[in-house]
Structure formats: C-alpha cells, structure tokens
Specification:
Blueprint: E1 12-18, E2 24-30, E3 37-43, E4 47-49, E5 55-57, H1 60-70, H2 78-94, E6 99-101, H3 102-116, H4 118-128, H5 134-147
Parallel strand pairs: 4-6
Antiparallel strand pairs: 1-2, 2-3, 4-5
C-alpha cells in the first residue's frame, strides 16, 4: 500500500476494525517515511462466472434488477429487494468460494425469494429453471403447497 502523501511503498497498520456488516475491514495505517496516517477499507472480492465464460464482479444491483422483474406488480418494496440481495450475498460469501457460477447465485436467490413472495418465486423459477410446460408449473405449485399448506385452521396467521 503506497502512502497517499509521499508515495512511500510501505505502511504500518496501527488499528483494524471489522465493519458493522462484517463484510469489510477498516485499517488505520501510518507511513514510516513521512508519518502520515490514512485509512484503507478492505473487502474480499467475489467473482461470478457467467454461462459464456466471462468473469465479472458480483453485484447486488444485478441481483435486485433480476428479481425486480419477477416482482413486478407484486407487493414487494425496494427495501425488501435490498434485504434479499444482502441475504443472497451473505449466503454466497459463507460458502467461502471467491468465484461462483451464475447458476449458484440463481439457486441462492430462490430460497429468499420464495419466502418473500411465492408468485414472484414462481415467475423467477420459471425463467431460471426453464419451465417449458404446464407440468413444470404444476410441480412447483404442488411443492409450494406441500411446504406451506393452507387450510381451514384459524391460527391468527397471515391469510394471504
């Protein structure tokens, strides 16, 4: 790390702190040459390998943009999408991998989206998993019904 003041090629870390979200580290540094102090923020890089083989940095904005299309006309807010994207990124980072296939990111989106909005989940899954028949939709709906049965019990819960 070059000193921003004198361009000396070395610096000494005098303090390190993890950010509130745990995804970056703030380091306070001091130049041994001029004594200047400066701050750096370090984050781990996360790369996505697209189907075409192109590698690009992970982007929460791309996750939000893709999911937003599936949520069109649904009662899903921008804040909901931001939380979903953060949850997806945290899940991906917990794998410990620095490079993931785009397919793995799609899989990581499906769970949180299913919890957020089942209709948006079906829309996203139909494109992502290439549904090509009514049977594909029926199978996905049957799975949703199995996992979240709706019945005649009045438990005071959400009656969506």
């Amino acid at each position: 790390m070059h000193c921003p003041f004198c361009r000396h090629s070395d610096s000494r870390v005098i303090d390190s702190r993890t950010s509130d979200d745990g995804l970056s580290i703030r380091r306070r540094r001091q130049c041994p040459e001029c004594g200047g102090r400066f701050t750096t923020v370090e984050t781990s890089s996360l790369s996505v390998v697209k189907r075409s083989g192109v590698v690009e940095p992970f982007s929460r904005e791309k996750v939000i943009a893709g999911v937003r299309k599936a949520c069109q006309g649904r009662p899903v807010t921008d804040a909901d999408l931001a939380v979903l994207a953060q949850d997806v990124e945290e899940a991906i980072r917990q794998t410990g991998a620095s490079q993931l296939d785009a397919n793995e990111i799609g899989l990581a989106i499906l769970g949180p989206l299913r919890e957020l909005d089942e209709v948006a989940y079906l829309r996203f899954a139909s494109v992502y998993q290439a549904f090509d028949s009514l049977e594909d939709f029926e199978g996905a709906i049957a799975q949703l019904r199995t996992d979240h049965p709706r019945g005649g019990t009045d438990d005071g819960g959400d009656a969506r």
